[in-house]
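User: Sequence in, structure out. Go.
Assistant: Echoing your sequence, followed by the structure tokens.
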Amino acid sequence: MKKVLIALDYGISARKIAEQGYNLAKSMKAKVTLLHVVADETYYSGIDAGPFMGFYGYDFFNIDDKNTLMESSLNFLEKIKSHLKDPDIEIIAEKGDFSTVILDVATRNHTSIIVLGAHSKNWLVKTVMGSVTESVLSNSKIPMFIIPVKE
């Protein structure tokens, strides 16, 4: 059975990436898995709290329990799943390094194609922070469908 893994972050482009990845999967008659990787809490402190896909941000200065962040991620993925109107979509939220978790989940699930967005970042951000998409691409043996997005 063909499987498509769609890796999403909390960016405003998540909807576009989910929709295009979902359309690709359906054209292949493939099973869809939505993945969000939960990183260090400081990553989320810079996220705009404005609503998108029904997600209204998170108060990261009052984190008492890391499970709250995981629950928030699962809620985010459930909202995208609901938007796509497909109850058969699997959702996964896991903690860890972005590219490592994406590749581990893809391998474990025998994924046929990994779908990621390629955010347009300036050269300084890419040099200092790296790019998740570039890291996955350089380490993956699984084909990828990369969706260019500008936020």
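User: And one key feature?
Assistant: The longest helix spans residues 66-84.
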